[in-house]
Amino acid sequence: MSDNALSEAAKAVVRRNTEEVQGGGNFELFEQLFADDFLDHTPQPGGKPDKAGVRELYKRLREAFPDFHAEIHWQRADGDVVTTYKTYHGTHRGDFLGVPATGKKVRFETVDAMRVVDGKIAEHWGVANLYSVMQQLGVIAPLPQA
């Protein structure tokens, strides 16, 4: 397989995860898309860095934000590593990081990189703007405007 074909196939796997698993709650597909030895190099606070940990994170996000979905702004691939910049959207209907449901709509940016091996997501590195979420939920006061 050429480098370009490998990159396009990897981007398709990551896009399916974002749209169908994270956004659609398709956890049967999750099992197909993630390698059994998956490793998250940047798990969320209190999360486990393995496949079970990311499955639990996705389920908690969907419980807290039942309409959780992402707007993918761009994806770039370098061989088997796909970097995605996206904005997540959702309505806060359940507990999230200890904050009870507020009914507020939130949005936050995320950049992540996922390595895809043999059609499965094998590794993840990412940064999510959770500070912004806490501000939107009213837990942290907004910074004064300059």
Automatic annotation (TrEMBL):
InterPro entries: Cyclase_SnoaL-like, NTF2-like_dom_sf
Transmembrane segments: none
Biological process according to GO: polyketide metabolic process
Entry protein name: Ester cyclase
Organism in which the protein naturally occurs: Sphingomonas oleivorans
